[in-house]
Request: fold
Amino acid sequence: MTIYTRTGDQGQTSVIGGRVHKDDDRVEAYGTIDELNSFVGLAGSIANPEIFADLGEDLQQIQQELFDCGSDLAYTRIKEDRFKVHSDMVDRLEAWIDRYESQNPVLEKFILPGGTQLSSTLHICRTICRRAERRAVTLSHNTEVNPQVIKYLNRLSDFFFSVARTANAREHTPDVEYERSKKVFRNKS
Reply:
C-alpha cells in the first residue's frame, strides 16, 4: 500500500460527494477537528491510568466521536440518515461534565490555563475545540451541516474545561486565578 496518492498536488482534496480546494471552509472545519483529535490522543497518553482511568476511557470515546464529527462535516450534500452525531452524544457529555465538576473545587473567578501537564494539554484541547466550533459555524453559513456537530463541539469544549480542572484537583495542584478577575461564576447551592 502506498500512502501518497499525488491527487492533492494541485491543491484540491476529496470530500464525500466531490472535490474541493484544500482551504475550503469544509476542510478547515474537519481539519481542525483532526488537529483536536491529535491533542486528545496526547492528553490520553499522558494521563496516569492509576489516577485517570475514567478520563482515559472518556477521551478514547471522544476520539471516536471526533471522527464522527469530521465525517458528518465532509458531506457536500446533506444526508441526515447518514449522520453519526446525535443529540444523545451531547446529553452524555453533559452528564460527564456534571460528574467531573462534582470533583472540582468551587470556581468563582476566571483561571489561567495550566497547572499539571495533563491539565495544560486539556486546556489546549479546549481552545482547539473552540476553534473547530467556529470553523463549523463558518461552514454552516455557506451550506447545511449537521447542527448536532456544532452542539457537540460546544459542549465538548466545556468538558475539556471541567476535566482540566479535575486533572489539577486529582493531582493536588490548585488552579491559578486570573488576578484581575471579578467573581464571574455563580455557585449552585
Notes: The chain has a mean pLDDT of 91.
